[in-house]
Amino acid sequence: MFDENKADMKKRHLDSDGKGRRLPLHKGWLVTISAAFLVTATLLLLLLLTATPLVPGRSAATAVSLLGRGGSGSLSQVTTPTQLQAILHYATSRVVPQQSLAEISLCFNVLREAAPCNFLVFGLGHDSLMWAALNPRGTTVFLEEGESWIRSVITKAPSLHAFHVHYPTRLAEANELLATYRDERDCMPGHAGMGRESRCRLALPGLPEEVRDKQWDVIMIDAPRGYFAEAPGRMGAIFTAAVMARGRTGEGVTHVFLHDVNRRVERTYAKEFLCMKNKVEGVGRLWHFEIPPFSNVNATRFC
């Protein structure tokens, strides 16, 4: 028979020392709880500030009140299914996004102003529901190298839109690719293309037309893997983002975010293709670039 007293004594024994003092929880568990709470709070803040329609003279506090009363600004009317799923997911999961709150906030601030927009993310992971939710009613597309991983994620979050992408490069080739790419005309700024027709080794073959033909307002580069020699590395992703941004025909700039800039290849390729003159801010391991359109077909350098 279950003995509540014994169970309670056992719990106290595990949670306290011999003097009856409460012991602190494991640091990793605290970090997980805190990160999950902060992510959920960020999503809730977005729902209140951007999903709730505000009119002149109506404050954010009034909008919150409307949500609470279930009136014209009720939660079911102003949110998207992806947003609601994201809140439920992060509120009940110990798995949290890989980026820090400060890094997420950098992109969040741009999405808050741009949404609904076209948002391209290199990588499909634990943060994908969050990114899709932060672009309500916009187009958010994920590019992922692992086909089995795509199936696993989409099974749990079918609202996400992801494509499998093949990266022909290897991290061990990064130096050689950087030293020789100017020898190929298809790699040059004025002629760089995307897809199988390009002879540039940095181009991504088989990129879907839906991705190639759309003008992306925001691009996040947080994949593919780039931490061991045989990994694809992010050389092709950085090159492709630069080509997309420079080929923009609409108004405004393209916001490009690059994660893991603490690594040499990411920093070197960012300086070569995204250009430090376009870097507007950075925090932690994340850099933010604002890249304007560029139409000089005779250019021999990206920067």
Itemize the secondary structure elements and their pairings.
Layout lengths: L3 H12 L11 H25 L8 H10 L5 H4 L2 H12 L8 H14 L3 E5 L5 H6 L5 E6 L2 H10 L5 E3 L9 H7 L28 H4 L5 E4 L13 H12 L7 E6 L4 H11 L4 E5 L2 E6 L12
Parallel strand pairs: 1-2, 1-4, 2-3, 4-5
Antiparallel strand pairs: 5-7, 6-7
Keywords: Golgi apparatus, Membrane, Transmembrane, Transmembrane helix
Protein name: Polysaccharide biosynthesis domain-containing protein
Main location: Golgi
Strand content: 5-15%
Kindly provide the radius of gyration, computed on alpha-carbon positions and rounded to a whole number of angstroms. 23 Å
Profile the largest sheet.
Answer: 7 strands, mixed
Strand segment tally: 7
Average of the residue pLDDT scores: 81
CATH class of the largest domain: Alpha Beta
- CATH T-level topology of the largest domain: Rossmann fold
Structural class: alpha/beta
How many structurally independent domains?
Answer: 2
CATH architecture of the largest domain: 3-Layer(aba) Sandwich
What is the helix/strand order?
HHHHHHEHEHEHHEHEHEE
Query: Widest sheet: strand order?
Result: 3-2-1-4-5-7-6
Shape: globular
Q: Tell me the number of helical segments per DSSP (H or I, 4 or more residues long).
A: 12
Query: How far apart lie the N and C ends?
Result: 74 Å
Report on this model:
The chain is an alpha/beta fold and 303 residues long. It folds into two domains: 1-95, no CATH class; 97-303, Rossmann fold (3-Layer(aba) Sandwich). It is built from twelve helices and seven strands. It has helices at 4-15, 27-51, 60-69, 75-78, 81-92, 101-114, 128-133, 147-156, 174-180, 209-212, 235-246, 264-274, and strands at residues 118-122, 139-144, 162-164, 218-221, 254-259, 279-283, 286-291. The chain has a seven-stranded mixed β-sheet with strand order 3-2-1-4-5-7-6, with helices on both faces. Strand 4, helix 11 (235-246) and strand 5 (254-259) form a beta-alpha-beta unit. The longest helix has 25 residues, at 27-51. The protein is globular, with a radius of gyration of 23 Å. The termini are far apart. The relative contact order is 0.10.
